[in-house]
Amino acid sequence: MITTFLVASTLMFGSILNGSAQQSQALKEQAVVNQHLAGSALNITSATIGTSGSAYVRVSIDNTGSESVFDFSEMDVILKYTDDLDATNLTHLTFNSVSAGVNQWTVPVSGVQPDTFNPNAWDSDEVLTLDIQVTPSIKSGTSANIVVGTPQGVTDQSDLTNP
Description:
By secondary structure, the chain is α+β, with helices and mostly antiparallel strands. It is built from 1 helix and 9 strands; from the N terminus they run αβββββββββ. It folds into 2 domains: about 1-40; about 40-160, Immunoglobulin-like (Sandwich). It is about 25% helix and about 35% strand. Strands 1, 2, 3, 4, 5, 6, 7, 8 and 9 form a 9-stranded mixed beta sheet that branches. It is elongated, with a radius of gyration of 23 Å. The relative contact order is 0.22. The mean pLDDT is about 85.
């Protein structure tokens, strides 16, 4: 009887310790994520559609935080718009390091300004330009909404109007 009690107590105590260790590790990981989020911020300063009925969009975003972005392919760019058939399109665009193809975005040669601290990275107080191409085209006289997210999970959005 006492042996059963001791074995059961040992198993319960071991389970409690294991659960506490896992919870402690999860809290540490969450603290690291929160630290990255606290240092990250961005602001879409302009978003324009090329011409009336165009499939081309240009977006400028200011990195107002302290976290740098080194791998643009880890960013999220989403565009919601109305096409010429009055259909609503919600498109998650993919990154293309060379040029923007259909439903893709790219960073043009002059994409990060001023690119002084980490060449080819988007650092604090630098503006990143995105060139976007969507198909079907954005209907003239309608508005669209662009959402940009960093690898750290920080997002900003902006409305833009097609002339």
